[in-house]
Design goal:
Helix content is 55%, strand content 11%. It has 110 residues and is mostly helical. It has a single domain, classed as Winged helix-like DNA-binding domain superfamily/Winged helix DNA-binding domain (Arc Repressor Mutant, subunit A), CATH 1.10.10.10.
């Protein structure tokens, strides 16, 4: 039986919420990234957590993982069409975060 939600925001937060999922999606909104690139852009996330979140986003149909089956490994991540449909939401979060940082004097690097 599918999970029931009582509000569309509840569904959205269940899928893209959490500390790292929106950040991963925001980076992938800018284009295809390899695992190492995502790690460098997100220095606060552990390798285990990044791998876990990428798998969750892939299972949710928002991220596509392409393994080129080479040595050394070459794996790329990109947004699926469903993931790309989040672009306006991600941009709104980015804009709000930028404005909030300016209002509060919070430093945002990267």
């Amino acid at each position: 039986m599918p999970q029931r939600y009582h509000c569309p925001v509840e569904l959205a937060v269940d899928i893209i919420g959490g500390k790292w999922r929106p950040v991963i999606l925001a980076h992938l909104k800018d284009g295809v990234h390899r695992y190492g690139e995502l790690r460098r852009r997100m220095p606060g996330v552990s390798e285990k957590m990044l791998t876990q979140r990428l798998r969750e986003l892939e299972a949710a149909g928002l991220v596509d993982r392409e393994d080129h089956e080479t040595v050394p490994p070459h794996v790329e991540y990109r947004l699926t069409e469903e993931g790309r449909s989040l672009a306006p939401v991600l941009q709104a979060l980015y804009d709000w975060g930028t404005a909030r940082a300016a209002r509060t004097g919070t430093s945002v690097t990267g």
